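Good morning C.,

I know you're traveling, so I'll keep this short. The sequence:
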Amino acid sequence: MSVEERIRAGAGRQAAAYLELTKPGITIFVAVTAVAGYLMAAIPTVHLPALLHLVVGITLATAGSLALNQYLEREPDAAMLRTRGRPVPSGRVAPGHARIFGWLLIVAGTGHLWFWLGWLPALVTAAAATLYDAVYTPLKLKSPVATPVGAVPGALPALVGWTAHAGTIDARGMTLFGILFVWQLIHVLALGWNLRQDYARAGFQLIPPGSDRLISGLMVGYAVALLPLSVLPTVLEMSGNAYLAGALVLGAGMLAVTVAFLLKPTKQRCSRVFLGSLLYHPLLLAAMVAGAL
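The tokens, ready to paste straight into the viewer:
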């Protein structure tokens, strides 16, 4: 291999490491949530340039927040089997470079939103990044309260999208936030229980101490709360009866897998809760948007 080829290969590996810092899968997930929030506020008057600016801004800011999180969690990540190969603990990206990279993306994303869409979506985005990196991330090492705290920035992207069109936060926007907040609690508890041994190596306290029945009972309780919350978009005339039927089916499915885990708390059944939560989120938002057309 020539010197020029080695330089190109090294640059490619470095670019891939920086891309990995942004957790592209989660970043896309967040962008889709923000788009759904925008569509729910905008239909039938969708402004495509505004939607594009929303995607650019929320993608940059989310990527930066996730990169900064990996800088902040470099030591716990090095202790966990699942994360020790990440760019910072593996040495592929220097910690200081990851910190600067994260901050630049956050500033670029929030600035883009402010310039093109206004101060409110930019402020909600900045609040989500602050809560995620400055509150949730250190709290994970101290208390299970981190889980509900972390559910706030997890649900805020829907409000970023909503405010990008509506320019205000009202009951309908808060309904979107509430649904995703409760969904996030089930999602994180399922992840935390399945990875509890790995998390213990890092000192993370995402799930409350106690019996498996306590944790599975919390999942069931959140699934029960999710059902009436998911009905509100129809009550508030945000979406139609077809959405209502879909929401009830998805909610019943979510409740069923959590109850099954309560009855027999095994890793396989917890994985079904986690997979169910991954399916619930996009399917519910897709049904909601389709029902609003």
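Safe travels,
E.
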